[in-house]
Amino acid sequence: MAFREYGSYDGVGLAELVRKKQVSAKELLDEAIARTARIDPQINAVVVKHYEYAERQIEKGLPDGPFTGVPFLLKDLDLLEGTRTTSGASIYKDNVADHTGTLAQRFLNSGVAIFGKSSSPEFGLMPTTESRLFGPTRNPWNLAHSSGGSSGGAGAAVAARILPVAHASDGGGSIRIPASASGVFGLKPTRARTPLGPDRGEGWAGFSCGHVLSISVRDSAVMLDAIHGPEPSSPYVAPPPERPFAREVGRDPGRLRVAFTGKSPYGDAIDPEIAAATREVAALLAGLGHHVEERAPVLAADPAVVMATIVSANTALNVRLAKRRFGRAMTENDFEALTLASAHNAQKATGTDYVAAQLSAFQISRGPGGVLRNLRCVPVPDALLGTPAYRRAQHDVEGSVPYRADPAALYAGNLHVQHVRSTRDVGAASLECRRLAARHDVRRTLRRRGNLVSDGGPTRARAAMERQIAAGLRVN
Question: Do 230 and 109 contact (CB within 8 A), yes or no?
Fold first, then answer.
């Protein structure tokens, strides 16, 4: 299969070719491996390669699912029996999983061939993907820029067309930030929509959810149909959808009530370029006949403090488990400074502080929840990508991100209206709207709500790979 043909199809499209026997699963895997060899040295997105695992899958026969034969990457935080999972940490560089996670098994059941793991910062803590273990993952549109995080490897690999869809997870923007950074589609499902077992019941007190980054809305919807639903150990359950998510693609949404904000959650001004893009999208929505108003929820507490308390406690547990496993104290040779600082900060908090943070999260959620009761859509700018400093990644790994060694500082900018979930089934999606608005793809997308593959690069793109990537894009 030629380069242009492979890069032009989304995952559902490639699976259809396999079903029609126009191409084999092995041919698709060979193409993904060839692209990894050719492209990944420039972007560093595929950090664990287990091609033989995918080859064995194909030899044994893949399940009959919506993505049968499609090459796939797991994020390097999830477990797949017999393969290496490092969590981006030096101490786990040789860690081989002895079992498969529930979500990974559901991906397998969908028919994908998992040939490797995509890069993540250590334990998924950072909004950029630059682990000490593997080094920085670069944005394929501009190799001097960040790919975002923590699912930066997935975003970069999909944007570079190594594959059309890849596993991602999101607790504080980790699907949405890479989607914005690399110009792909990312949906963070509502809490408990997808499983986290068998080792965990929830991630980061319910903030963290798993799904995918993809080149098409269709892939995201079809994959969510394949992986959603509770497992026996689920502590709580998301309400069942009214209809398959795939049937939402292409449905006429009718006239929507839309609110938008061009400011940070704290009411502060953001980067003018991002603010202008937000208003362009709002104007396009109004031009399509939707009711649009500028409105933002009132926050009952400081989300940065809530996230810092919850995330640092989870990080401290990771460090404790490593200490127990290896029988010694963890040092900066084992974990990065931010991980150890986060774990240290957790020691200053009490159990009461943790419960108070959870309560604050529920109180904060009433703000967005109240807005969303009467509205169908709330476009908000990506707060991190709204700052010039974040767009300029400095790839020296050590101290490359301009944050203090304090979890509260880490999460202060990483806030979206959707982070603290309401009890409604609300997903949070992200894509690079400046480019879409410039090419009027928003108008086309909102009419079709379908298989979007956006063409061209971000306005700042001068990447060495831009022509190569753009040559393979089309709407199928």
Answer: no
Is residue 348 flagged as an active site residue?
no
- Which of 49, 75, 117, 188 is catalytic? The answer is 75
The token pair that represents 242 in the structure block: 């009214």
pLDDT, greater one: 181 or 454: 181
Residue listed under structure tokens 């797949």: 80
The first and second tokens of residue 93, run together, are 């560089």
User: pLDDT higher for 473 or 73?
Assistant: 73
Whole-angstrom distance, CA of residue 366 vs CA of residue 390: 30
Q: Tell me the pLDDT tens digit for each residue of 439-461.
A: 333 333 333 333 333 333 332 22
- pLDDT given for residue 425 in this prediction: 41
Q: Is 124 helix (H, G, I), strand (E, B) or coil?
A: helix
The H-or-E segment that residue 389 falls in is: helix 388-391
Q: The tokens of 8 are what?
A: 């032009």
User: Which helix (H) or strand (E) covers residue 362, if one does?
Assistant: helix 351-373
For the question of residue 120 being annotated catalytic, the response is no
SS3 216: coil
Q: What is the H or E stretch that residue 166 is in?
A: strand 165-170
Query: Which tokens hold the place of 359?
Result: 């309560």
Burial class (CB in 10 A: 0-12, 13-18, 19+), 403: buried
Q: Give how far Cα 89 sits from Cα of 134, 174, 326, Å.
A: 9, 18, 14
Q: Which of 174, 220, 342, 422 is catalytic?
A: 174
Q: What end-to-end distance do the CA atoms of the chain give, in Å?
A: 17
* Contacts (Cβ under 8 Å, ≥6 apart) of 394: 400
CA–CA separation, 424 vs 358, rounded Å? Answer: 18
How far apart CA 227 and CA 218 sit, in angstroms, is 14
Residue 428, exposed/middle/buried by CB under 10 A (0-12, 13-18, 19+)?
A: buried
152, 283, 331 from 91: Cα distances, Å = 21, 50, 10
The CA distance from 326 to 317, in Å, is 14
Please give the Cα distance from 220 to 237 (Å, whole number).
20
In eight-state DSSP terms, residue 133 is T
Q: Is 169 helix (H, G, I), strand (E, B) or coil?
A: strand
For the stretch 432-443, pLDDT in tens is 554 433 333 333
Tokens coding 209: 């959810």
Catalytic residue among 150, 180, 208, 264: 150
DSSP one-letter code for 299: P
Domain covering 3-470, topology = Amidase signature (AS) enzymes (3.90.1300)
For residue 120, whether the previous peptide bond is cis, meaning omega lies within 30 degrees of 0, is no
